[in-house]
Write a structure and sequence with these properties.
Blueprint (H helix, E strand, L loop, with lengths): L9 E3 L12 E4 L4 H12 L9 H16 L4 H16 L8 H17 L1 H25 E5 L7 E2 L2 E2 L1 H5 L3 H15 L8
Antiparallel strand pairs: 1-2, 2-3, 4-5
């Protein structure tokens, strides 16, 4: 669904409930560029859930590898850094063996547990994954039909009480649809 208007809501139904009687419908509106950035600012500021980019994770991982094993086993540290680079480039290149992938997974677990900079980025990415759909739903849902909970709004959007009355999984998926609409405007010419 590609939004055309920031005032006319799009009708969205959870795919697994499309055959229900009556069919539940969430009314989600698109956001303009400024509102999109305000949502991103709220995630990054108030919720400490800004976007975490792959290059940030890779840099923290590399620093952690050098800090934790670089002095005692520099060859192992370099090999691990090379494996990460290979894995990240493997989309069109050579694949790593199962043993190499297992080594990377174990190293990422160690970094998450023992290297604060990497652990902080993982926590931030998890906060973002959990909160982005909820914040987008709160701001961009303008009503619903055939949902057992009553719809209510206040100055910040859908009220917490109204959101709490919705099935949590359904809220997350509807929120993900609302969040995806934030960036769908670039596709409107297709």
């Amino acid at each position: 669904m590609i939004p055309i208007s920031t005032t006319e809501p799009a009708r969205w139904t959870p795919p697994w409930r499309a055959a229900a009687t009556p069919v539940p419908v969430y009314l989600l509106r698109a956001a303009g560029v400024v509102e999109r950035e305000l949502i991103e600012a709220e995630l990054a500021g108030e919720h400490r859930a800004g976007a975490v980019y792959p290059f940030q994770l890779r840099a923290a991982f590399t620093a952690g590898v050098h800090a934790l094993i670089g002095e005692t086993a520099p060859e192992d540290a370099e090999r691990l850094v090379q494996l990460i680079a290979q894995r990240d480039a493997a989309e069109g290149g050579e694949a790593l063996s199962d043993d190499e992938l297992a080594l990377i997974a174990a190293a990422e677990q160690v970094m998450t547990e023992h290297y604060p900079a990497y652990r902080a980025l993982i926590a931030q990415a998890q906060r973002r994954e959990a909160l982005a759909p909820v914040v987008a739903f709160q701001r961009l849902c303008v009503g619903w039909e055939n949902v057992s909970a009553p719809y209510a709004r206040d100055w910040s959007g859908v009220t917490p009480a109204a959101m709490a009355a919705i099935d949590p999984f359904e809220l997350r998926v509807a929120g993900r649809a609302a969040y995806n609409m934030l960036y769908a405007g670039a596709q409107s010419g297709n």
